Amino acid sequence: MWKFLSFLMFGLIDSALAIDVQAPQVYLKDFDTGEVLLEKNADQQMVPSSMSKIMTAYLVFERLKSGDIKLDDTLHVSQAAWQMGGSKMFVPINDKVKIDDLLHGVIVQSGNDACIVLAEGLGGTEAAFAEEMTRKAHEMGAKNSTFVNSTGWPDEGHLTTAKDLAIIAEKTIRDFPEQYAKYYGLKEFTYNNIKQGNRNTLLYKNMGADGMKTGHTDSGGYGIVASAKQGDRRLILVINGLPSSKARDQEATALLNWGFNTFKNYKIFGKGDVVEVADVWSGAEPKVSLVATQNVIFTLPRSQRKELQTKVIYDSPLAAPLKAGDQIGMIEVTVPSKGVYQIPLEVQQDVKEASFFQRINNSVHYLLWGKHSS
User: Fold this and answer.
1) Fewer Cβ in 10 A, N or C end of the chain?
2) Model confidence at 354: pLDDT above 90
């Protein structure tokens, strides 16, 4: 049976390339290939603090996309939202605030009050909205997450994992690229004449960072869900449990730089690329193009590129008739320290069976010269 390649999840890297990490939980992956570059206790449940807010924002983006709400719609500020402690957007009690402003407040200012206004306005109650956060997370595959509130405020049972946060981050970027670009990369936002800077210090560095969300509580420590893009590569990083904001900044910077500098994405074939031109037996056309059925991209340490080997396997000549899309062989890729991966090859275009006289002619040529006539 062929082992078809879809998402390249190869696990941990060679120990010779390892990097020391201080954070109790770490998860670093390549956005495009799914290659996990580094993980440490990535499935261990942890207190996510304000990193929970990326799930809150996701549900708002989803409602905006469906048309249920609009950015100019306003929501009421309850006493519960107004008096909420921790980081705040400083929305006035009983005021009406635009959803657009509330999203800025959640993502840029990490406003707990903004989260509650959104949760109550869209879910009826914060508890109901939190239940929806949990359901949606599980649908995404973030099955080790339970959200009890919309803010990340310490609450019994409010838990997730580094891997789950990475899943939510990746889903946000894929499902809502325009909204992601609009909100998550902003360095500051002013509301009610109060200007606040984004707590994501990576945004202020020249390293391609464009999101997503920091978090801190006494029980959870300092953490960050980070995304950075350099060239055509994007990395997703989640770390948590660090003792200070300085340690969080230093570790996140070091891990992202390590991921970009140590690894590279190597594209062998793109989906639809012609991999081989095959001979056709008894066909109206003597040859047919064989194409890759999907993108064939691997994330590898730069030092291992020369060890990557590719082989095309199929029975030649192919017998007509052939139909576009027929799978007739495979691309076999040997990846250093990972193993052998097989990707289906398919016929690019239809090839009808040759006429009776063409088949006779081809048979004669094959008997005399070991090939059919062209």
Assistant:
1) N
2) no
